[in-house]
Design brief:
Largest sheet: none
Shape: elongated
Radius of gyration: 21 Å
Distance between the termini: 40 Å
Order of helices and strands: HHHHHHHH
Helix content: over 70%
Number of strands: 0
Strand content: under 5%
């Protein structure tokens, strides 16, 4: 049951003494890890902390590719498609978490483009034509990530778009050459 559906409960909670409400609030916040991270960011961090978060995220994305470079080769084989898809999904999850916490669209687009560029530079042969099912899944997933990055990019201010223009053009050119842009 939701609190907004039960008006009696809502009124009772709002009428609690401040000290008791504070205790309940702290207990509830501790149960939701994402809410805890969001509140920490909003209440305790500033612009410098955002820059540190972005720097840490970029390093985490780079190290994720470094760690998996032994497992994924630039050869169009079943295991390589699956491995790269898994790596991209894991990295995307890290970016999604960053977005939920900071709500900073510029860094989200920047990191998505970094992620795509890294995959394209390291594993170009995995984006060529293939009849393997994991290849199709990987290419569909990458197409969706490109579409998402383009959508957020288009909503950025033109000055911010200018800063990312080179990366975006690279990603879109690669996508066009490898026929990943059919859904864009």
């Amino acid at each position: 049951m939701s609190l907004h559906k039960d008006q009696e409960l809502k009124e009772a909670v709002l009428n609690l003494p401040a000290k008791e409400k504070d205790k309940l609030l702290v207990r509830l916040i501790n149960k939701d890890k994402m809410l805890l991270k969001q509140l920490h960011y909003e209440l305790l961090e500033d612009e410098a902390d955002l820059e540190d978060r972005i720097f840490d995220l970029k390093n985490a994305l780079e190290s994720l590719f470094e760690i998996n470079s032994n497992k994924i080769k630039n050869l169009p084989m079943y295991s390589n498609y699956k491995g790269l898809n898994s790596t991209l999904r894991q990295a995307s999850g890290m970016i999604n978490e960053h977005e939920k916490i900071t709500k900073d669209k510029f860094s989200v687009v920047e990191c998505r483009l970094l992620l795509l560029q890294e995959a394209f530079d390291r594993y170009p042969s995995l984006f060529g034509p293939s009849a393997l099912s994991p290849a199709f899944k990987l290419q569909s997933y990458v197409s969706a990530r490109i579409k998402n990055a383009v959508k957020i990019f288009d909503n950025l201010h033109e000055d911010l778009q200018f800063d990312l223009k080179e990366q975006m053009e690279y990603v879109l050119d690669f996508a066009s050459q490898h026929k990943l842009d059919q859904s864009l």
